[in-house]
Amino acid sequence: MQFGVFSVSDITRDPVSGRTPSEAERIDAIVRIAQKTEEAGLDVFAIGEHHNPPFFSSSPTTLLSFIAARTEKLIVTTSTTLITTNDPVRIAEEYAMLQHLSKGRTDLMLGRGNTAPVYPWFGQDIRQGLPLALENYNLLHRLWREDVVDWEGRFRTPLQGFTSIPRPLDDVPPFVWHGSIRTPEIAEQAAYYGDGFFANNIFWPKEHYMRLIQFYRQRYAHYGHGTEKQAIVGLGGQAYLARRSQDAVREFRPYFDEAPVYGHGPSMEDFMKMTPLSVGSPQEVIDKTLTFREHFGDYQRQLFLMDHAGLPLKTVLNQLDLLGEEVVPTLRRELAAKRDPEVPDAPTHATLVTAKYGDRAPRQPRPNANRGDNVTGSSPYQDTDTKDANA
Amino acid sequence: MNANGSGPLSLVVVTAGTGDPSSTRMLADRTAQRVSGLAGRRGHEVRVRVVDLRRLATEITTALVSQLTGPNLQDAIAALAGADGIVAATPVYKAGASGLFTSFFQVLDNDLLIAKPVVLTATAGTARHALVVDDQLRSLFAYLRAAAVPTSLFAAPEDWADPAFDKRIERAAFELVLFMESGFARQIKDESWHSYQHEFGSAGGTETGIDLDTDLMRLAAGGGEPAK
């Protein structure tokens, strides 16, 4: 079971101090938060992608490679990378580079993005958002698995004899999670490829996600990747902790009341009742998080939203200490004890390498010298045999 | 007997009246009673459920701003999902239906009321608001693809004691009863539901299964073979 933190990179006025941090402060803070995520014994740090204020995260691979350089074990990933408005060729290149630099501590979560004006900024049409996402991922999947790709589709210029460089580390692509909260086609695509499925599990009552995750599990089994319970599921969640429940409620309420998305709406108590938000003592957060397994089945990744709504850095770091010391160890123990022995862990680079190569040495593609182009000849790489053509 | 041949017909009254007593509620109740009476004479038992929007007011505004549907609102949605017929009643304010009324219908899924028969009713302090029912309510329910019955009901103060108004209530109620006993909405749901647009998880969770035989589903599965 992997535990981690995901951030949407919002820059929000602190409703208690009245102060809004600068972009520079928030960017420095997020690096500190990611480092703290590792120090606190968690496994994953994920950052969203946005292209408009009040967010700062437009360049996730730049940020994540810096974080990877400052950490040892942390898996760095996104929540989400926009598979609609990014060119899939750029995604293939940038995340393969991040994967090399982080020595395999990279995976990728894909989403369509819900900010309508972003589409035209990048030359795309939001009315085509879903087919765009599906087609772009079909291409991305091939770019990471085939050294030379010929491709033609609706939304992008055709590719002839194209090689996406660098090839993935050890010729094993980063594991991909597909994020969705209401689109069966995205769950179907995750199931078809045997990829992971992630439900952000923040705003809506659980019944909504339960139906979609069940559909993903059924289709994962249908496509022969394993049984329904072996499908790879990730969930979000959000928590605010204090040693005493009433302190947590008192401290978090002003941030809840003004939070983007749900602020000025439901009461915190109603929101806690109806969504995965936990505000309370470590034991209360543990108890609530354990209910996720009851609703969704055994799952492999739990990400918490911890740094939003204007919470000051010091508070976020304290929250991560509490999460790492008081909550996650108990959750790891309890979930391991309850877990069906057939359910696998979330794939990591190491397990994917073992699955592909067993005891053999992984392939390290070496380009042919002075070839000049990818269009002529058989392969741009020296090892031209077919053992790796596993598309 | 309902259109399935078993059990009572379900009539849901949605009222945005806020006074106590509320003239809007009075008109809605009078209409519902007439529906029950007429249906009873034709051999149908009618169960009436009243959704009082005043009690849902904070959950409706919460749903408008945060996508969160409170338990009472969920309960109302479930009632509407199972309704064979609806009486919708609003007061008229500032030349339009009450914001509470329109907000409620705006947070419902687009397919919740498909083909459901509805009597549109409104009350106002002056007859100058008379066209609000047919001008605004009818277009709202047309968007929701509900089946508004031909006769709408509008009551200005002078209408309450007018025998002609009582005749209009009778007419609207009878139109609704005929729709309800025909099972029109249920037949659409059973035989033609797939031909309407739906979103995943909509229609109060009563949507039919996911269609795998679409171009998008084939694209999701690598763009190759049809998904079985």
TrEMBL record, chain A:
Residue ranges, compositional bias (Polar residues): 373-383
Top-level taxon: Bacteria
Domain Luciferase-like residue range list: 1-295
InterPro entries, per database record: Bact_Lucif_Oxidored, LLM_FMN-dep_put, Luciferase-like_dom, Luciferase-like_sf
Gene Ontology annotations for the cellular component aspect, listed alphabetically: cytosol
Region (Disordered): 338-391
Any one GO molecular-function label of the UniProt entry: monooxygenase activity
Keywords: Monooxygenase, Oxidoreductase
CDD domains: Flavin_utilizing_monoxygenases
Protein name: LLM class flavin-dependent oxidoreductase
Species assigned in the record: Amycolatopsis acidiphila
